[in-house]
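Late entry, zinc ion complex.
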Amino acid sequence: MIGFTRGAAPSVLTPSRVQSWTARWVQRVGTRATSADFQWPTVDQRPLRDHLVGPLLALTADHCAYCDGHPIDDTQTPQVDHFLPKVRHPEHAFAWANLYPSCSACNRAKGDHVTEGALLRPDEPDYAFERYYVFDRRDGVVRPNPGASPADRERARVTIATLGINAGNRPKRRVAALLRAERDPDALLDDLPYRFVVADARGA
Ligand SMILES: [Zn+2]
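Prediction complete; structure with ligand written out below:
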């Protein structure tokens, strides 16, 4: 939800590793593997996933790339989400640009939905929360920015729906986060969940 700039891939993703992991997964998908069959390869006795979580969370200051929840999953390890689903797009399964740090709620909501073209990437050029969305302080709901172009509004609508951004108690949690932030105006923005609820007020 908050824009970020993606740097170069971490050193664990060498081109030759990526190429061989990808080739193997593409072949498995060709023989009808499902996303449940996906396993991270092992590097230095640890799953690749463990090597990627740190560099991914550094991009978002420990926030979910999609809903800006923070900290991600107190009780679970953060998810490494494949933006283009790994079965529909096996050729991107190990591509750095296709991996996002995600909370389990967003990861689950997104699932294997077909998201090409519409779903917003927070690191795409010219992305900014306020370009696409407005946050309603009264009910905690995130809505497409009524001042945006029709195409941008549609992308916002698809993204909100696909990720379940207004599902369940999420709006309530954002209002609570806003109230907490207002009680503690000195808190660092990156220490807060849902940074967009206060980013405007703080000129961030
Ligand atoms: Zn999330």
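The chain has a mean pLDDT of 93. Will revisit in the morning.
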